[in-house]
Amino acid sequence: MAITLPQEYSYVLLAATSTLFVNAYHSLLTSSKRKASGIKYPTTYASQELADKDPKAYQFNCAQRAHANFTENLTPAVIGMLVTGLKYPLLAAVGGGAWSFFRVLYAMGYVANGPSGRSAGGLGASLIDMTMKFAAAYTALSFVMNW
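Above: the chain sequence. Below: its structure as tokens.
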């Protein structure tokens, strides 16, 4: 089977590349909150006791968790973009770019307001993620079934 990339596939690659910069944003955010809190490496999170007393330690925990959540969701999101883009490149590109945008909102909200602040970014990213998963599954199936 030969797969010819659609002309617009370069936009999909651009959207997938945007996730590299979202990851860099998360890294900078987390490291700045680590420095502000005084929590040294290799400690992954401030203890609950410290986070309850120190708002800077709490913000570090929120930034760290937002970054972990991003990395947990990154691989499925990028695979969804790349596979969907084989048949629906504009959907994949717009969805991928929007996913990156919502992941930044997620991080900003989480760090500023704790877990309740992640809702808007989380909802947007989740809706796009589910759309990409179904579109990728349909795309893959269409190749298997020769549709």
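Residues 20 and 100 are 9 Å apart (CA to CA).
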